[in-house]
Design brief:
Blueprint lengths: L15 E5 L15 H11 L3 E6 L2 H13 L3 E6 L5 H15 L4 E4 L14 H27 L4 E8 L9 H21 L4 E8 L2 E2 L1 H4 L4 H10 L6 E2 H12 L10 E4 L11
Parallel strand pairs: 1-2, 1-4, 2-3, 4-5, 5-6, 6-9, 7-8
Helix pairs in contact: 1-2, 1-8, 3-4, 4-5
């Protein structure tokens, strides 16, 4: 698709966005296997935003930037381990230094781990909280003042259907439940400062991060969990991210929205 600064119902031209977890496979293209963060970065850039793509592996973030620039968009890559407070602060500082402002944050980072509380070490439990919850808290801690300086901004946190339908990973369900609570609390605490915060509760969405661990049989089962009998893609996620970070959703805050093809209202095993 040719780059175009969409006629801007989105209100994103000239806005600055940070995508935390915006990388993806080097050599990966724009097919259905794109990651959530990479797709969000591309769609925000197509809508006219300037994008800071943050990731633990610089080469993966840079590949997202290369795809954006190939279309004529504006972006740069920044290496960051968002489980470290100093790195979260540095991402925000880098975006503001380069572009002079900050308007949007998309928190994508997270992972799952199998097992119940009897099967998991305390160290693994804490490491999952550090990645899935603390990283979002620390990004918001430094992003919110920068956005308030411009009159406000928008935050999108990526959650999971496991937060409301637990299965096979206690710590993932608990941490993603905490993301929902964090999101609504951010909205309540900072709404008067012009900050909006919303969460996407993702269901069976196919990305390269998921694909590494799924057999074809497992993917087919995931697809059957959806009322639409297919998996979602990173592009489905990204279109909702773009909406939630744009002026189209300017009266929406504190919400957690299921993006799951209807899986949350039916009961097949996944």
């Amino acid at each position: 698709m040719a780059y175009e600064k969409i006629d801007n119902d989105y209100g994103l031209i000239g806005k600055v966005a940070i995508i935390a977890g915006g990388g993806g496979p080097v050599g990966g293209g724009l097919d259905e296997g794109v990651t959530n963060g990479r797709a969000a970065a591309i769609l925000l850039a197509r809508a006219g935003a300037k994008v800071c793509v943050a990731g633990r592996t610089l080469a993966l973030a840079q590949h997202t930037v290369d795809l954006i620039k190939k279309e004529g968009g504006e972006a740069f890559a920044h290496q960051a381990d968002v489980t470290k407070e100093a790195d979260c602060r540095a991402v925000v500082d880098a975006a503001v230094t380069r572009y002079g402002r900050l308007d949007c944050v998309d928190n994508n980072v997270g992972r799952s781990a199998p097992g119940d509380v009897t099967q998991m070490s305390v160290e693994e439990w804490r490491s999952m909280f550090a990645l899935n919850v603390d990283s979002m808290m620390m990004m918001c801690k430094y992003a919110i003042p920068a956005m308030v300086a411009n009159g406000g901004g928008a935050i999108c946190n990526i959650g999971s259907l496991r937060s409301i339908r637990p299965q096979n990973s206690t710590v993932y369900s608990v941490t993603k439940g905490a993301v929902v609570a964090l999101t609504s609390t951010l909205a309540a605490d900072h709404g008067a400062q012009g900050i909006r915060a919303n969460c996407i509760i993702l269901g069976p969405v196919f990305t390269p991060n998921i694909n590494r661990n799924l057999t074809p049989e497992r993917r087919a089962l995931r697809a059957q969990a959806s009322l639409m009998k297919r998996e979602g893609t990173g592009w489905d996620t990204a279109q909702l991210v773009r909406f939630l970070l744009s002026e189209q959703s300017k009266f929406m805050t504190g919400q957690s929205i299921c993006l799951d093809g209807g899986a949350s209202i039916v009961g097949p095993s996944r």
